[in-house]
Amino acid sequence: MNRRHFLRGTGVALALPWMESIGRAAATTSNTTAPTRFACVYFSNGVEPEHWFAKGEGANMQIGPGLAPMQPFREDITFVRGLFNKQAFISTSPHLGRNPNLLSGAKVSLDPADIRVGTSFDQVLAKEIGHRTAMPSLVLGIEPNELRLEDGLSMVYGSCISWTSPTKPATKEIYPARTFDSLVGDGSGRELDKSVLDAVLSDTHSLQPKISRNDKTKLDEYLESIRDIEKRIERAKKEERIEGWRPTLAKPNMPRPADTIPQDVPAHMKLMLDMIILAFQMDKTRIATLMLNNDLSQMNFRFIEGVKGALHLDLTHNGKAPVAEAMYLKTNQFHVQQFAYLLDRMKKIDEGGQSMLDSSILMLCSSLFDGDTHGADQLPILLAGKGNGQFKHGRVLDYLERGDDNRKACSLYLTLMDKMGVKLERFGDASTRLAEL
Q1: Taking the model in full, what pTM does it have?
Q2: Is residue 21 part of a domain?
Q3: Contact assessment for residue 75 and residue 358, using Cβ atoms and an 8 Å cutoff
Q4: How far apart are CA 411 and CA 434, in angstroms?
Q5: Where in the sequence is the domain holding 329, given as residue range(s)?
Q6: Domain tally for the chain?
Q7: Looking at the predicted structure, is the pLDDT value of residue 361 above 70?
Q8: Residue 225 domain-assigned?
Q9: String of b and e for 378-399 (b: at least 16 CB within 10 Å)?
Q10: Of all residues in the chain, what percent carry a pLDDT higher than 70?
């Protein structure tokens, strides 16, 4: 409807008075395009710097050996060089002071009694726009959260890049089957029992007067999780769309994975990438993160041809030994290959005149640059997806020589949040957007 709508009959057109609902409909025109989605794919322990570069533009872009799997997608990516998080750079903890703040730029508490970082920008998005879908966000991984200590600090710092609050990491799912069930149900016909949630909330209210202030903060975070479940129940009851864009899938187009964790690492990673695609296709969420490995990862890469009996941590901390460097390069290529798989699948999914890749914003990143030296002076970042026409790709954006104030990763995050429809005056250490993006 236009702001001035006409009732039409034979030989007559009668103008209606201005009405609020018609005005609102005109201001927010019927949306027939897919919503913009965001996904971050993370790999640990940095890159082999000599082989991580890009030059030129478009189909003529020259990319380093570490990025070889991106060769077919050079016109679909933006290579970002030189951004960093200052709090990570100045941290005295070479790993755990630089990993959990990757997506927040916040200071990491190095007090073992106080686990504290900052809310990651993916979870800021989830809080602002997550109510539009059944799941506010999808937080996935391959390796489990580790509870051991490393240099006196909790390895929860190395296991999580997505934080719902400064003190609470988002729950990371590593089981493909459980992820599948959270998206589509387990087929048993059981319904979530809201009365159980009501009982839990009643118990917590009686508990509140008896606990300390710190415990009340923890309880509030727990209650917020319960409220999220309540909201999901309500949304699940009214999954209806009268007009505009509709998801390309109403039901899953893949079988439910086995209950167990796949023992084949590449198969596990592909399944979790498939879960992101399924979630986007069914419009169950529009925000996702996937950790291909934990920081200080113990993942063994012997499944890659030419990589022999070495843990990822050992390959990346190799003293520049030539043989180990060559194997490090292969692990970089393997991680980029997973990102290429995501791009390829999304590019082939038509959503009514454009691909899923066209409507999405994707980021590949690590929390270190040179893994061997724990380099935090810049971050390896690749961007892909047009975000519904908001990005032009096939470019190299180099910020390395522009001064620290123009190299803030949080400026990138402000820009990405803008593109997702969430506008903040400030995030982390940044109050300006990233130039040229």
Answers
A1: 0.83
A2: no
A3: no
A4: 5
A5: 36-189+254-419
A6: 1
A7: yes
A8: no
A9: bbbbbbbbbbbeebebbbbbeb
A10: 82
234 lies in some domain: no
CA–CA separation, 328 and 21 (whole Å): 59
For residue 420, the one-letter residue type is M
Residue 20: predicted pLDDT: 44
Q: Which two tokens stand for residue 185?
A: 């149900």
* Closest to 298 in 3D by CA, of 92, 45, 97, 40: 45
Calculate the alpha carbon distances from 277 to 58, 74, 265, 288, 401 in Å: 26, 21, 19, 10, 37
Dump pLDDT digits (tens) for 4-53: 444 444 444 444 444 444 444 333 334 678 999 999 999 999 999 999 99
Domain-located, residue 104: yes
Question: Domain of 287: which CATH number?
Answer: 3.40.720
Instruction: Compute the distance between CA of residue 316 and CA of residue 331 in angstroms, rounded to an integer.
Output: 9
What is the token pair recorded at 214?
């710190």
Strands (E), 216-339: 287-291
Give the helix/strand (H/E) hosting 90.
helix 86-90
Lowest model confidence (mean pLDDT) among 39-53, 176-190, 236-250, 364-378: 236-250
171 or 206, greater pLDDT: 171
Question: What backbone phi and psi angles, to 5 degrees, belong to 355?
Answer: -85, 165
Amino acid letter, 182: S
